[in-house]
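Hi D.,

Good news: the full-assembly prediction came through. Inputs first.
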Amino acid sequence: MKLEKNLRLYQEVIDPPMTQAELDNINSAQFDFAQTLGLKLTYCAKDRLEGELTVEQRHLQPTGIANGGVYCVIGETLASLAAVAACGKPAVGMSNYTDLLGSVREGETIRAVAKPVHVGKRTHLWRVEMSAGGRLAAVTNLKLMVMDS
Amino acid sequence: MKLEKNLRLYQEVIDPPMTQAELDNINSAQFDFAQTLGLKLTYCAKDRLEGELTVEQRHLQPTGIANGGVYCVIGETLASLAAVAACGKPAVGMSNYTDLLGSVREGETIRAVAKPVHVGKRTHLWRVEMSAGGRLAAVTNLKLMVMDS
Amino acid sequence: MKLEKNLRLYQEVIDPPMTQAELDNINSAQFDFAQTLGLKLTYCAKDRLEGELTVEQRHLQPTGIANGGVYCVIGETLASLAAVAACGKPAVGMSNYTDLLGSVREGETIRAVAKPVHVGKRTHLWRVEMSAGGRLAAVTNLKLMVMDS
Amino acid sequence: MKLEKNLRLYQEVIDPPMTQAELDNINSAQFDFAQTLGLKLTYCAKDRLEGELTVEQRHLQPTGIANGGVYCVIGETLASLAAVAACGKPAVGMSNYTDLLGSVREGETIRAVAKPVHVGKRTHLWRVEMSAGGRLAAVTNLKLMVMDS
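Then the structure:
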């Protein structure tokens, strides 16, 4: 896969943090679901990831606010990348628990920060807080299993 | 909102089930996140919803399988519609717990069925099972609060 | 540990179901948290477990109904035993998601049934429904990791 | 109920924090599930609660470590009290999501801290971190609904 060839990701622990060129490489990949949605990675290191997504009409649910699934996807994607960045190996999500705490409207930007809760040899737990306009909108807790390479 | 004007949804309990014309109306709406992803509603009644999504390249994560967030979105969207279909009022998701149990590849179709676990006056709990090729791939438990109109 | 010496549990897949003598053996063990709470195992096979607990004053929270943690414990305990019964190996809980759906008062009996959602080589997901007086009171989804012996 | 008569809890927001006499009053109540288990409240204010439980034989599961349900109960109980302390009204738990991250043995003390994630008019989300010997053992996320008095 092209992404894996070009990047430290999946090959080593991300320390020091990704350069802007590395972030641009990930953000320009076309095949990934996160990119389909417009999620941009803005910071990536072994102990913290950050990303953002500006809500457009295509992210809305019928009542005019962002579909709750948007937060789940942001949390899933950032936490999955975070686990890989922290251990240098592939990791698969086992469960995604997302609390939906506020609503976000078209034009607002959701800023997300992923931090580790538990980084073990076989499993990880990452917590992703998502805010817009200074208000907490959602929190994802993603549990992952590290795959032996 | 156009969707609300054209449909029984948000106005009454969906009994009898939606006609094919009503399903087509929802599936052709352009502003909704679910439609952005290619999720089609195939059955909608007050006590069961069904939908499907065929996995394309744009749904994948870097390792070549569907991004776990895809299941969360399907679960969130079907369960939210299901709650509205069951009570005839708007409902907002409060928490989305999705177990990720299997992987699905490009070209496979995810079939999802939403059934009620608890339908109360103020809160609902819906469970959405998602399968592909006869194997269970994910289960979402969505808790919602009913909004008084 | 005495329990492990006397029982098929932890040594083999429980098929056929436990005899009444085997259930009595488990229910009379003194060191286990479940027994401390008064939880009785009433059926145990590789694909289903059942148990019950009669709510007493010591299970209540200050407002006079059973503490929500009681359901979490029942779910945790039955699902953990169920995973062991299904695979014949030790298994440890990784996450416990319990929806609290109704209240139960002193003197009522909570009946619980554990069924498998996903039984894989490395992880299990079990779902435990708990009812009292015919009403659903809570549901636990317990995710476990199988330990290699 | 005696507890409600003697305490600010359930009647007002707990600010300033409880005195030692108020904590002793709660810890000596006999009818509560938390007290049955030996959970002691050590700090209680509107924006933070702390408690501790020393693991005894009666808290163990068959493999000799604390039953995972013990953490769920600690999280449920502290977060429920915390919600009441923060709003001065009764609140009922709607869902308890507990990640089980480490094991604790007989004689070790679990220290728990509850902090608010979201305190709304109708719903709260509290997060309870539980540690023993400096290691994180479990985290509970409890969602509650505030009851109008």
